[in-house]
Amino acid sequence: MRSKKKLAVAAVIVAVMITVVIPSAYGVQPDNAGTLYSAYLDWLQGKPVGLAKINLGMDHQIQRATLVVVDYTLGEPKILYQGPMLAPTVKIQRIPKGTKIETVIKDGKVVREHRTVYRPVKLLIIVSGENYWGTKFIEFHPEKPLTSVNIKVPLHRDNIGPSIQGLNPKNEFQATSVKVGDMFMGNVTIFRLHSVPGVEERLIINEDDTLAIDSFSQTVAQWEQPSPDRWERSGKVSTPFGYAAPVPTSDGEMKTVHATVRYRIYRYDVCGYLICRTVYELIPQEIVEFSKIDIDNDPGTIPSNLIRHSHSRDAGDEFTVYFQESSDDGGVYFSTAVSACAGAGVQICFTGTVNTYRQSSSNRPAVKVIINSWHGNVLYFARYSENGNYYEVPLQWG
Predict the structure, then answer these.
(1) What pLDDT, in 10s, does the model give residues 269-300?
(2) Coil, helix or strand for 8?
(3) What are residue 334's DSSP bridge partners?
(4) 3: alpha, beta or left, given left = phi > 0 and alpha = psi -120 to 50?
(5) Interior CA angle at 364 toward 362 and 370, to 5°?
(6) Sign of the Cα pseudo-torsion (223, 228, 234, 238, in order)
(7) Helix (H/G/I), strand (E/B), else coil: 2
(8) Phi-psi region for residue 159, left (φ > 0), alpha (ψ -120 to 50) or beta?
(9) How far apart are the first and last CA of the chain?
């Protein structure tokens, strides 16, 4: 009997620690204690979970604002939070996907350690307030059980304000997600391959490799359709390859590769403070196929502003250039003008510019260089970014 009482008392103490003491120690608001407790129970069951504290920044103050946090980590959206504009802590998936060897300094010595690599968490942030709205798609690796994420959400004006005729008479926070369908955007420029006489390049795409591509959003009054030319960028998305042709390039050809990208259309109906707003989101799902290849003459020289690396004859007839280094250099790689529509009967259309980016949160493709015949003793090569983000390797005989 006494042992049962002791277990009960211990359980109460653990609950108090989790819901009161631990949240304060980690900077988690008391309102989020239930999320922390839920994550703790999942952790006890061996589930791969973690926590993310969302810290928002915006261009200016917004009145009567509602915040929605949607998780896309496992593909289909899951609404993690809907409510007032606080700094909520949400439960996320912290899924290991392998290990990597990392060089660190420990006790004054340089050592190599195995570090767990986690699948990137993908969150869509929606802000809806009086006269303004904004969305932001973010990706991050949950290296620690509790991650603090700082997010800058751009705001757009649309003059939607409170209305007693809205669908939210009780002033409750409501958010619903509806999958509308898929849109295929063709001929999006994604990478370029170089060659010189006797040498070819091939893009090496492994299972986990991705390229970062724009996502888009647009808000409309409830039950209205989005306009083709009013889409706003809402963040880059690491997009996997559903297609991996080698695209060999040789004998002085330069090939620019374009692809068809499948986007998924989602509709979010967000209500709060008597303000109801419909937000459409276009999120890239996969690179479906290489739809077009432009062939030009390669200059066969390395631009003077790039760092040259040399590969000598005695080093072999092939080598691979990787683009896996971490970096903040995530700027635009290519921009493509695109027009596309989706849907039977009532169509949703897009007209605008789609950017691909030099960096994604997952693995990135590599370029394999194959020397079929030597035209000198040294083959020079360079990466357009020493940070390893351009996926492009110019060549020159020396």
Answers:
(1) 999 988 999 999 999 999 999 999 999 999 99
(2) helix
(3) 356
(4) alpha
(5) 160
(6) positive
(7) helix
(8) left
(9) 86
